[in-house]
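Predict the 3D structure for this chain.
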Amino acid sequence: MGIKAVLPSYELGFYALILTCAVVYSGNGIFDASRDNVNRKAFRQGIKPGWHYFGRKMDAADFEWAMWFTAFRNIIIFALSGHILFAKICSMVAPQHRSVVYMLYGMLAVLGTMGRAYLMIVLSHCVVLYSVALAKQRWLCFVAGLCSLASFRLDPFSTWQNGFVTRTFDLQDVLFYGGCGFTIMRCMSFALENAERKEGIYSIIDLLKYNFYLPFFFFGPIMTFDRFHSQVSTSELRRKDNEMWNIRAHAFLHLAAIVAVDVFFHFFYILTLPADVKFVNRLSDWALAGLAYSNLVYDWVKAAVMFGIINTITRLDHLDPPQPPKCITMLYVFAETHFDRGINDWLCKYVYDHLGENHDDVVKELRATICTFAVTTLWLGPCEIVYIWSVCNCFGLNFELWVQKVFQMEPFGRMEANMSEPMSRRIRGIFGAANFWAIVLYNVLALNSLDFTLLVAKRILLTGFPLSTLSIWFITYCGVQLIKERERLLAIEEEKRDKEKAA
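Done. Predicted structure below.
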């Protein structure tokens, strides 16, 4: 059945009302738990003094958020401001050489931040992988790249290389492993694109320009080499209509999001509460489900803000960076689930789509997903929780295809063909709601802990059955139908734009 199946407006309004009431009720339970247990001994490490305007303490359990927007805010602003300044001067004076200026400033910033030993480690890996790229063999590029990545993810090679960096500051490990990990992924993209090039080879200067573009260097996102090279090599720099206005609007939007998250953390301790499993076990099923869901929403907001700030800077440099990840609230299928669109694009281009082709063959899809999550596991760093996360998401992605194949068979295919489009949409929404919670549980596993995830699953599926299970399923179904309605409207708008272009 098509995506344009229409449901009555009163039905959608009812779904919106039910979903709003459920979110408010669940949020109230989390707010009460945060307010009444702020001085709990188990929470002292995660809850710190906040803005005195609110007279409340603040959830400060997320190291990444604190690093970006409190502890090292001034250093990050200083480094990126320097990049913007030099990039602007170069784009006005010598736009044909701007990629060289990006590279030189990036190398100097890395040298000043991490020291000469770190810069030499990064350069040595670049030289090795460039040498491999000269052979123009895809399999060799993958083997060499994954071995280099493993040297930063597995001991004793990881500890040995980190030992060369003698500087000691709180951010050192994050910058070391972040910069090195993204460097290897960029080098692999370079090598794979070079292997696909029919005539000639890219120079090592092209690789260094690509790797040492400062906004992407330490924290990503990854832009594949073909896209970066084609965009940064353009000497005619022109803005689209209203582009600067859009850049300013996005900058203010990200600033507002940072303030909103900080305010939110004064009232909802969604990151600290799951650390005490005994305590959250006393929450209601609704509050517990809301706590798990809000953790995923926050992780999306964090990724959208962090990558959004970087993307704003790169758009000032006349680049078209990877877009922020799709909001978790808008997802109910595993195929669209990701928190880093750059890594997702990289994996899809070089592994998933290459092996899975059209993604309609069960065996090819299984092979593609296993290889994709094997690379993802190495990228994240092999450990027990990552293994479990990878297996669960790999299974979810394949299970979607299996279910799709089963329901295309008789008699299911004929039964759906005889249904009206709205009824087909409602039935698909029921399965989408179950899939939505599978996505939530599988990914909360990586964000919190295995114990918290098992507790949420047990309360929703076992001890809460049938009342909590069915009610949460129905509320999620309401949300899925609202998502489908948004997809329907977007599809209609896209069709109108295509007709206007054709005319």
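The mean pLDDT is 87.
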